[in-house]
Specification:
By secondary structure, the protein is an alpha/beta fold. It has 11 helices and 10 strands. The longest helix has 30 residues.
């Protein structure tokens, strides 16, 4: 159904065929339209998206993974296709809308919010299985009541929608998206390995920051925050037929393929101090070649023992320092 102020979802896609149909079906439970920017998918993602009349597919021709560039492309297309008075949501393909009567009521409510309002929502994450979840609260700025403000983002970890200085935030109580990224930790680690390599190539990001963002030790979710999913999440899992096996990405993972291509292009040594060497790159390379992938190195050159020791010690010391600082901060707060 079309509305005077439509809800338009902006979604970047790169080889998401394993989950894209469920994503589109769940998203159209609250959105009027979806704009998908496909970046050279090779798994049939585009064909799936084009089955839906309310989905507009555009091509992201960038060879690099630039969050700001792809979001800018999506925002511009949404405005040209649906006007500059829409409700924009930046939602990834592994984030599934959790439908409820309350969420539908809030969708109706945000259509009347002032222009420039940012919509803050929760993205509870499934952790390793569909029976374990972490809740974060409405802290993710995924929605925006468009006012035509220029979009400005960053190459890495960018905000997905525009912002308007001085405008209010709307903290949603019921609009939530079930995040599937941590259903498979090998996929989480693969993605973070590529992030780390991208940040090296982009330049200007200190090693300690790359470790903090991407090293395995910092990624694992604290067990004390994991709990049982609520009834709405459980119903969404059943309705969307979500499970750890059927929605796994095909191997070899495209993030690992991209890292291998950067090894071939830039050499191995520039990445020796990044926390990416805990996997069997030789096996991944062999699997990639068996699938006919090209632009790959002939062999893997690994860092030596000294470099491995320095990297592992550095990551551990950084982790301990950050943990100690947090404990001291908590102690001071409790003893005020």
């Amino acid at each position: 159904m079309s509305h005077p102020r439509p809800v338009v979802v902006l979604t970047p896609v790169k080889n998401e065929a394993h989950i894209l149909r469920q994503f589109i079906e769940s998203t159209l439970n609250f959105a009027d339209y979806i704009v998908i920017a496909d970046q050279n998918s090779s798994d049939g993602s585009v064909a799936i998206a084009e089955e839906f009349d309310q989905v507009l597919v555009i091509e992201n021709k960038e060879s690099l993974f630039d969050n700001a560039a792809r979001s800018s492309l999506l925002v511009a297309k949404a405005r040209s296709a649906f006007g500059a008075d829409s409700i924009l949501f930046g939602v990834d393909a592994d984030e599934i809308f959790i439908e409820s009567p309350q969420s539908q009521n809030e969708i109706d409510q945000i259509r009347d919010l002032p222009r420039g309002t940012t919509i803050m929502v929760d993205k509870p994450s499934l952790i390793g299985s569909t029976d374990r979840v972490i809740y974060y609260g409405s802290v993710f700025p995924l929605g925006y009541v468009d006012d035509g403000s220029e979009y400005s983002g960053t190459t890495f970890h960018s905000r997905r929608v525009p912002s308007s200085e001085g405008a209010q935030d709307f903290h949603s109580l019921h609009i939530r998206f079930l995040h599937l990224d941590a259903l498979s930790f090998d996929e989480v680690f693969s993605k973070r390995r590529l992030y780390s390599v991208r940040e090296v190539d982009n330049g200007g990001i200190p090693l300690r920051v790359r470790w903090r963002r991407n090293a395995r030790r910092f990624i694992k979710k604290p067990e004390q925050h994991v709990c049982k999913p609520d009834i709405l999440i459980s119903e969404t899992v059943v309705k969307m037929k979500l499970d750890c096996q059927s929605i796994r990405r095909p191997r070899p993972l495209w993030w690992d393929l991209e890292v291998l291509k950067r090894f071939e292009k830039n050499g191995f040594r520039r990445y020796f101090f990044d926390d990416i060497w805990y996997v069997n790159w030789e096996s991944i390379l062999s699997e990639a070649k068996s699938h006919g992938c090209t632009d790959l190195p002939g062999r893997i050159e690994r860092p030596g023992r000294l470099v491995n020791g320095l990297r592992q010690s550095g990551v551990l010391l950084l982790y301990c320092a950050i943990s100690l600082r947090k404990k001291l901060r908590d102690f001071r707060f409790l003893n005020k």
